Amino acid sequence: MACRTVTPQLFASSSHPIHRVRPVAAVPRSNAAPQAIRTGRGKFAAAAITLDDYLPMRSTEVKNRTSTSDITCVRLITAVKTPYLPDGRFDLEAYDSLINMQIEGGAEGVIVGGTTGEGHLMSWDEHIMLIGHTVNCFGTRIKVIGNTGSNSTREAVHATEQGFAVGMHAALHINPYYGKTSTEGLISHFEAVLPMGPTIIYNVPSRSGQDITPEVIEAVSGSPNLAGVKECVGHDRVKCYTDKGITIWSGNDDECHDSRWKFGATGVISVASNLVPGLMHSIMYKGENATLNEKLLPLMKWLFCQPNPIALNTALAQLGVARPVFRLPYVPLPLEKRIEFVRFVEAIGRENFVGQKEAQVLDDDDFVLISRY
C-alpha cells in the first residue's frame, strides 16, 4: 500500500513542553493527623485518604447532574470515531457532523475516546478536551460517556475526576490491562472509581487479556453508581447478569439483536452505528427482526475483519464523512476490502448510511498516515 506518511513538526519549548498532564491535587493543611482506613482488602495509605477527602468530585452539584437511571435506560450508544485533520489534530468540524448524524439517526449516547475513538492514541489533554467539547455542544441532546479508564488506578481516578468536572454524564471503565491484577485487585480498582459518578464497566478479554468475572461484577453491584456492564463475552454471560437485574449492553454488534431480544440486554454499545445509526436504532427498538439483522451481519463482520477501528476508519473515509487520515499504528484496509465495502453500501442502500456522498473505493495514495501529531 502506497499510503503517505506525514510527520508534522512538533512545537515545544522549555517553557511549554508537550507531555501528558497529570496535575496533582493540593492537600489542605490540617493539624489533625490523617487516619488510615482498614478494609477487608488491605489498608489504604493515610495520604491517599486525605487526598480522597478533598477530591473535586465530592461536589454535590456534579453528582446531582446525572443519575444512574438516566444511563441505564439508554439502548443505543455509539462508540464514536474521532476524525483527524491532515496534520493529525482533531477535525472538530467533521466530529461535530458525526455526532449530529448520530443524534438524527436515533443514538441516545456516545462513548468518547473509547477503543473505536482511539482514546489510547490521545494525550489526556486531548481526551478530556474532546469530552468537554462533546458535552458543551451536544450534552443536552445525547448522553456523553467518557472513556476514562486506565490500567493505572491513579490515572483512572484522575481522568474520571476531570471527565466529570467537564460535564460528562457517565464514565466507561475497562479493567487494568497488560499489567493484570487479581480478582481482589479488580474489585478494589472499580471501587476506587465508582464513587465519582455513573459508571459502565467494560469487559473485553480479547483486548484486555483478562475476563472480568461475575464474581467481580457482583461484588461491586451494590454501588448506586454502577450503571451496568458493556459485555463482550457472549449471550450466556449476558443472561447471567440480566437474570440478576444487572443492566447489560452488548459489546458485539453481531450478537446485539439476540442479546437484546432473547437474553435481556438493555441495548448495545455499537461500532456499526457509526455507519448506520438508524438501522441499529431499529434493531434495538422495533422488536425482533431477523431479516434486518441478517442483512446487516455481513457488514458487522466486515467491520472486524481487522482490529477495530481500522475498517470503520476506512469506511467513513470512503463515505466522505471523515478525511482519509490515520494516526499510526492504524492503516487503511487493502483495496479488495474497500471494494467489498462499496458493495455493502449498494446492497443495504446508500440512504441508510451516514453522509451524502457516494461511497468511493479510494486509491492507496489517498490515505495519509500520521506518526507524530
TrEMBL record:
Catalysed reactions, semicolon-separated: L-aspartate 4-semialdehyde + pyruvate = (2S,4S)-4-hydroxy-2,3,4,5-tetrahydrodipicolinate + H2O + H(+)
Keywords: Amino-acid biosynthesis, Diaminopimelate biosynthesis, Lyase, Lysine biosynthesis, Schiff base
Single Gene Ontology MF annotation: 4-hydroxy-tetrahydrodipicolinate synthase activity
This enzyme's EC code(s): 4.3.3.7
InterPro entries in the record: Aldolase_TIM, DapA, DapA-like, Schiff_base-form_aldolases_AS, Schiff_base-form_aldolases_CS
Pathway of action: Amino-acid biosynthesis; L-lysine biosynthesis via DAP pathway; (S)-tetrahydrodipicolinate from L-aspartate: step 3/4
UniProt-listed GO biological process terms: diaminopimelate biosynthetic process; lysine biosynthetic process via diaminopimelate
A Pfam match: DHDPS
Superkingdom per UniProt: Eukaryota
PROSITE patterns assigned to the protein according to its UniProt record, in alphabetical order: DHDPS_1 (PS00665), DHDPS_2 (PS00666)
Family statement drawn from the similarity comment of this UniProt entry: Belongs to the DapA family.
NCBIfam families named among the record's database cross-references: dapA
Function: Catalyzes the condensation of (S)-aspartate-beta-semialdehyde [(S)-ASA] and pyruvate to 4-hydroxy-tetrahydrodipicolinate (HTPA).
Protein name: 4-hydroxy-tetrahydrodipicolinate synthase
